[in-house]
Specification:
19% strand; DUF7662; globular; DUF7662 domain-containing protein; 4 helices; alpha+beta; three-stranded antiparallel sheet
């Protein structure tokens, strides 16, 4: 089991197409502290470096969401990916 599996499951259960979670909320969901690297936008960017497998990115993508760290460096916007045909 990956530490970000609870985040994936949380995202899968969402009905909103777009929403923001604070780092604190994400830490509650995963029941662990986020690493310092989470403050960097590139750590969250799901479309950046797709060949570089990172568990937090994989969790978001598996749930059907794109993640973008917000300018405050303390929260992340999750946006549902368009349905694939």
């Amino acid at each position: 089991m990956n530490v970000y599996d609870p985040l994936r499951d949380y995202l899968k259960a969402q009905t909103l197409s777009e929403f923001v979670l604070s780092f604190e909320q994400i830490e509650q969901i995963i029941d662990a502290a986020l690493p310092r690297a989470a403050q960097r936008a590139s750590w969250w960017e799901t479309l950046r470096s797709p060949q570089e497998k990172m568990p937090q990115r994989e969790a978001c993508l598996e749930a059907g969401y794109l993640a973008t760290r917000q300018a405050d460096a303390k929260s992340v916007k999750f946006k549902r990916m368009p349905a694939r045909r």
